[in-house]
Amino acid sequence: MITLHYYPGNASFAPHVCLTKIGVPFTLDLVDRQAEAQRSPGYTALNPNQRIPTLICPGDEGSDLVLWEAAAICLHLADLYSSAALMPAPGSSARGRAYKLLMFLTNTLQPEILTYHYADRHVTDPAAVPAVRAKAEERIGRWLAVLADELGDRPFLVGDDPTLVDYYFLMNARWTRKLAKKAGDYGQAGPYLDRVLAVSEVRRTLDAEGLDPDRFLG
Ligand SMILES: N[C@@H](CCC(=O)N[C@@H](CS)C(=O)NCC(=O)O)C(=O)O
Questions:
Q1: Are residues 60 and 142 in the same domain?
Q2: Number of structural domains, the chain?
Q3: What value does the mean pLDDT of the chain take?
Q4: pTM for the model
Q5: Which atom of ligand 1 is nearest to the CA of 73?
Q6: Domain range for residue 7?
Q7: Separation in Å, CA 4 to CA 139, 150, 182, 186
């Protein structure tokens, strides 16, 4: 059985959408952030980074595979269940584009968003928090503009159908909802994000996490 350790709207969201799209049975295990459960010894044994998500799935050597890092989880699920078409075909140009954009999201945009939200972890002087947050917000804007340019008038980031890269962008977009200029304010990203939000597997995931689609993006 597959288990996803999650918290509503957190970095577990894109993996959760992937599992919903795939349609195999899985268990959701809430990591109670209010109780700092991500730092509990039990969870730390699974995920030494004390971050959400963690996925437990059957491995290919008879024992469980424990995965952390949301993008890695999404990609592994895409490989395991290729018929769900979470990614374009291996070796295709579309697959290359999907890798480029996913890596950009996970390596460039997401760390800036984390710096914004966890600015206090980046300073020794609490008075410096607003300055760190302001610089992070500036850089987030730069990366959101790049993504909006990449999107252009396309229906989805890669090809005509949604891929896990769209789920991943939607998840990141949620975390910009309190910024002065949020993800949907760039280029065609607003209508695009509404389109991703309306996809059936996204809707069902929102339902399962108890999240209101009308408030997901602020
Ligand atoms: N690079 C990690 C980041 C995960 C991450 O930062 N998760 C956040 C929730 S969105 C978290 O667990 N925060 C709790 C904490 O840092 O204490 C991933 O993509 O899986």
A1: no
A2: 2
A3: 97
A4: 0.97
A5: 20
A6: 2-84
A7: 31, 31, 28, 32
